Amino acid sequence: MSAPATPPPALQEFKDNLRAAPRRILETAFRSGNPSTDRTRSTFIFSNVFLHLHSVRVHRWTLKWSTSMGLGIATTAGFLLTLITGILLMFYYKPYPDAAYQSIKDIHFVVPTGRFIRNIHRWAANVMVVTVILHMARTFYTASYRRPREFNWLIGMGLLAVTLGLSFTGYLLPWDQLAYWAITIGANIAQSPREVTDAIGITGWFDPGGMQKFLLLGSDTVGPEALIRFYLLHVMILPLALMALMSVHFWRIRKDGGLARPADADQRLGNAPGPVYPVFTQAPLKTYSLAAIVRGRTPAVGNGPENTVPSMPHLFYAELGVFMLTTLVCLALALIADAPLKELANPSIPENPAKAPWYFLGLQELVSFSAFVGGIGIPTLVLAGLGLIPYLDREEAGTGEWFGGPGGRKVVFQALVVGFAAALAIESFAIRFGWIREWYLAVPQFVVTVLNPGTILAAVYGFYSVWLVKRYKSTRAGALGLFTCFLCGFLVLTVIGTYFRGPNWVFYWSPGDWPRH
Q: What is each CA distance from 133 to 130, 291, 359, 430, in whole angstroms?
């Protein structure tokens, strides 16, 4: 009978455990092991708290560059860059008027790499605004808002609103002249309902415009209350709201069957160009008893795993590539152009021209004719129309295709012509000849509110959309025309407000033509 094995000395066992600790840490963190088989690739995703928002497998159509152009991931990358650089800036920023401007100057001129970090923060925020707008346009033009993705379209609209809110609230934090008067313009836009209440004489007891301005600023003017309020919104409330909406957005993409694709996507793709991992490669580890079979109602019903590939590595490598490209763009822009910083905010010396952030300059152009229509009326109509699109367009033709649906590209190209031509014609007339108030000083304000370039432009676009619906007998055709027209109007008004408006909001072809003082 052999003697029992002698246990290793305690010190030797401790050394062996210490040597094996790094490997054991990886094994316990990634319990699925190396994602080298179909099963471990799947387990790698649904056992990870972050990655499980993705589906285990992804359709090959989703991986085509033209399907999404990576705009959603680019927006996410912009947010993460903004978040990381924002946290770094918080170490030095002081959110009260007496010190805010000086702390920004210290970041810009004293803190090592402070200027670069602030530049990245600014450019990542702008990239985020641009890509989220393009992402919404891509979703619309491919009819990806249709069933079962209607609610996720609304979530996307919420993400757009929160993104604009994040950028707008951060605009005030430098506390310089540019920031102070831009936020003043924004607060006056929020107060624009007073134009209507004044016209009908009810402002004394019903003043929604004044209430909106007070909620925004915490006071009647931009001051310490506004700064701390904007700071809290910018660094805590809105980022948390954005992360919550993003999580729901990604989760709904998975639950809604992935990105929208044409009904004949499999036929269009044909056979895979290279070897594809088989769908099932290993024997099952579990067995199940089947009590009954019922037909489900999820998008997965009737769809098998054919023509799909594991999300790991195919989808994740594509997302990583878009993330790296977005980071490269933000770094390049940060090296080329500095974030602006003007003189210390001075309430007694207004900027002339005082301009809102660039993404609100189209509204400011409309506000110059009617504060209520430009600041509240048209934005409300646009948001309501966008929200209703998935529930009004119940057609199926063209889903997942660029400019799909009756009329298709022809409607979009015609709408581009109508959209740009109408906006340029109305703006040119108003710039050259003025508007009702310049012609008749005693005209009632209500008339100016109802009849102004903004309402006329919106009416032209609306009538054109109705004409498209009747001609093509399709809600989708009308939606394509209306959406394209409003995009054209937004671009025209934004360009005019950015480059051609000078002191007192007068039109100038060049800043060189501005009056000299």
A: 5, 48, 10, 28
Rounded to 5 degrees, φ, ψ at 310 are -60, 135
Read off the pLDDT of residues 481-505 as tens digits, 9 standing for 90 and up: 999 999 999 999 999 999 999 998 9
How high is the pLDDT of residue 279? 56
Check residue 287 and give its pLDDT: 65
Peptide bond just before 8 cis, omega within 30 deg? no
Mean pLDDT for the stretch of residues 20-40: 77
Tell me how far apart the alpha carbons of residues 124 and 198 are, in angstroms, rounded to a whole number: 41
**Residue 487: predicted pLDDT:** 96
- Residue labelled with tokens 């309430």: 347
What beta strand segments (E) does 135-260 contain?
A: none
Distances (CA, A) of 163 to 116, 160, 168, 169, 339: 22, 5, 9, 10, 19
Give me the half-sphere count of Cα atoms (radius 13 Å) on the Cβ side of residue 307: 16
Note the pLDDT of residue 386.
94
Mean pLDDT of the chain: 88
Among 334-348, 356-370, 481-495, the range with the most confident prediction by mean pLDDT is 481-495
Residue with tokens 């409300």: 380
- The span from the CA of 171 to the CA of 412, in Å, is 35
The confidence score (pLDDT) of residue 148 equals 92
Q: What are the CB-based long-range contacts (under 8 Å, 24+) for 82-91? A: 82/121, 82/124, 82/125, 82/128, 82/166, 83/239, 85/117, 85/118, 85/120, 85/121, 85/124, 86/121, 86/235, 88/117, 89/114, 89/117, 89/118, 89/121, 90/235
Taking the CA atoms of the chain, what radius of gyration do you get in angstroms?
28
Residues in the chain: 517
Rounded mean pLDDT, 41-65: 80
Question: Could you tell me where in the chain the CATH 1.20.810.10 domains are found?
Answer: 57-261+313-347
Q: Which CATH code fits 57-261+313-347?
A: 1.20.810.10
- Cα–Cα distance, 272 to 214 (Å, whole number): 60
